[in-house]
Design brief:
The protein is α+β, with helices and mostly antiparallel strands. A 9-stranded mixed β-sheet has the order 16-19-14-13-27-26-22-23-25. Helix 7 runs antiparallel to helix 8.
């Protein structure tokens, strides 16, 4: 009997250690709340396992199998987990995705996830509708912003369909939250909405109490119901549609457009002379005219190789970039969001590179990627630790523009005080200011130039302001352009810095022109540093 009990105990222990006799029961479901061709498309996956497990997820677009994202997550036994996996920029109208999964004991499987909201098919999403929202007629009568296809004025969603990564929330929607949504929201979703708001997203709430709650979180939420802020919601929807039609100014890296025409002409003339008269003279001298049929292809091949090598060396093997950095600074809540628009040219593709898990990478000139070739273009993201991107984000010997957006906590700040009737600015950044423009409460503009770090200077009244210094903001996407436009109002500032205020994300490269760093945001007198 003791021997039998010992054997049973050993069998139980081995089952726990090696998974023998106790297979994991894994429940897995998934859906796509919306598709987004401008950035990442979120795939929400619900997991519930009977044992503590490590689940490896591989997600790819069903329309373009080279568009992939990976993530590995640890799950606890008996606990439901909702995991967001972000698929990178989609080259096609993604309608569904396939999820392949495996675990630590060798089980594996797959499932399909479908999208229930097409790209840009609405501009308003109401989460967890309840009795506190009384703006039903308002939502039904929102302006029709797209006359070329069927657009829903708004959609209702449950809070469980909101991703917990801000990059998975599109910039072409605005969000309405209710008290029921507040009850269901998770800490990670709150953080995602805060970061999304910093990147330009607009949040409405249905009660004043919710407005106070979100403003304590650093989000400038607006109350909207049947009688409050109807015009604001309507104008927001109209503005979202206008943003999507704004064009991005294409910018090439200086020096990479120079074609060595003279050298190519010399090589061509040498080929004509050698492959023709000299080649014929040589085979005739040998009295082997038939060799002309052999030597001509050989000479042609040699010159083709010479041209290829020369072209490669002319472009160079190193990487070159042109960078403009735009930062929205919220000093009151010690938050910021930075957009880096990077024009890129490289002799050889730089390969994989890492970004912060909070960063959003977007291809601006998507015409580089012919939609007829989407099966040949590969874009991958690995989300297991930080964000590692690989594939064809930066093609070799191709002019490209990418944008990397990163929300951050920011302790540095500017201090504005009044000395009599004259405003004075203290540069609290560890970077020098090239030019600074502040608009007071009356709409009058004040300027300062060449303000070193830690220095305080009196600002001077400006008779007129030229926006030429800041004109390159059109190199950003529509959301960042709107952030810049919003800073041209009372009690806001715009500044140009001597050097970028953050390290430039992405692969390292040569900078033929100095990076341009712009900062803007609200600034009131008497803000304590």
């Amino acid at each position: 009997m003791r021997l039998m009990l010992s054997f049973i105990l050993l069998l139980c222990v081995s089952s726990q250690l090696f998974g023998v006799g106790a297979p994991s029961t894994l429940t897995i479901r998934g859906h796509i709340p919306w598709t987004n061709q401008e950035s990442y498309t979120p795939v929400l996956i619900e997991l519930e396992s009977s044992i503590d497990d490590l689940i490896h997820l591989n997600v790819h677009s069903s329309g373009a199998k080279n568009i992939r994202a990976n993530r590995s997550v640890e799950v606890k036994a008996g606990k439901k987990h909702t995991i967001t996996v972000l698929l990178p920029t989609n080259l096609t109208a993604l309608s569904n995705a396939q999820v392949n999964w495996s675990n630590k004991i060798g089980q594996k499987g797959s499932l399909k996830c479908r999208s229930d909201l097409r790209y840009r098919s609405t501009h308003v999403i109401l989460f967890d509708r309840d009795a506190s929202f009384t703006g039903n007629e308002l939502l039904k009568n929102l302006p029709n912003t797209n006359h070329h296809r069927s657009v829903q004025p708004y959609v209702d969603r449950q809070m469980s369909s909101l991703p917990d990564f801000w990059q998975g929330i599109p910039q072409w929607i605005c969000i309405i939250l209710t008290p029921d949504a507040e009850k269901q929201i998770t800490t990670s979703q709150i953080q995602a909405l805060k970061q999304w708001h910093r990147a330009g997203g607009t949040i409405f709430v249905s009660t004043e109490f919710l407005q106070k709650t979100w403003r304590k979180r650093g989000v400038d939420a607006h109350v909207v119901n049947q009688v409050v802020n109807q015009s604001l919601l309507r104008s927001t929807v109209a503005n979202l549609d206008r943003q999507t039609n704004k064009r991005i100014r294409q910018h090439r890296v200086p020096g990479t457009d120079e074609v060595p025409t003279a050298a190519f002409i010399i090589i061509l003339l040498l080929f004509i002379a050698i492959a023709g008269p000299l080649n014929y003279w040589w085979v005739r001298r040998l009295q082997q005219i038939h060799l002309f049929l052999i030597t001509t292809p050989i000479i042609s091949s040699i010159f083709c190789l010479v041209l290829a090598i020369f072209g490669l060396l002319a472009d160079g093997l190193s990487s070159h970039r042109s960078v403009i950095e735009l930062t929205w600074l919220d000093q009151q809540h010690k938050q910021s969001c930075t957009w880096n628009s990077i024009s890129w040219f490289s002799g050889l593709s730089p390969g994989d590179f890492s970004l912060s898990s909070d960063s959003d990478i977007r291809i601006l000139n998507d015409t580089v990627y012919n939609t007829d070739m989407y099966d040949e273009i590969g874009l991958q993201c690995n989300w297991s630790t930080q964000q590692t991107v690989s594939g064809d984000w930066l093609l070799s010997r191709t002019h490209q523009q990418i944008q990397i957006t990163t929300p951050r906590t920011e302790e540095r700040r500017f201090l504005l005080t009044y000395n009599g009737n004259t405003p004075s600015l203290k540069n609290g950044f560890d970077r020098d200011i090239q030019s600074f423009v502040w608009t007071d409460q009356t709409g009058r503009r004040w300027i300062g130039e060449n303000i070193v770090s830690g220095q305080s200077v009196a600002l001077k009244p400006a008779r007129s302001i030229s926006d030429d210094t800041f004109a390159q903001h059109t190199r950003f996407d529509a959301g960042a352009q709107q952030i810049w436009i919003n800073s041209d109002q009372a009690l806001h500032f715009r500044a140009s810095m001597i050097t970028p205020i953050h390290d430039i994300p992405g692969p390292s490269a040569n900078d033929p022109e100095a990076p341009l760093s712009l900062i803007c945001g609200p600034l009131a007198p008497g803000v304590s540093p």
